[in-house]
Amino acid sequence: xxxxxxxxxxLVQAGGSLRLSCTASGHTSSGYDMGWFRQTxxxxxxxxxxxxxxxxxxxxxxxxxxxxISRDNAKNxxxxxxxxxxxxxxxxxxxxxxxxxxxxxxxxxxxxxxxxSS
Length: 118
Known about the structure:
single chain; mainly beta; 53% strand
């Protein structure tokens, strides 16, 4: 029903910046939350940032002050501006979607690789 397509990953040097984009298609009209998660081999998928419909924003402690999440409801899109990137930010980043009344994110993008070189 709802599908997410994300882009913007790539290779960047430490201290650099990248902007990830995610666009939702399908039954997206109102009352949904979108966010970003990331995952490295051998680790669980971890929360990065989210922006709710209300709207409210939340960030993990590891990215707070460096990453900024934003959304454009008219385009059903969410963005993640990443600055002051560190090698430990290297991961596959996933866009996520849920309706506000749902308890957990349940629609995921295909993932985009972010690699930060030291």
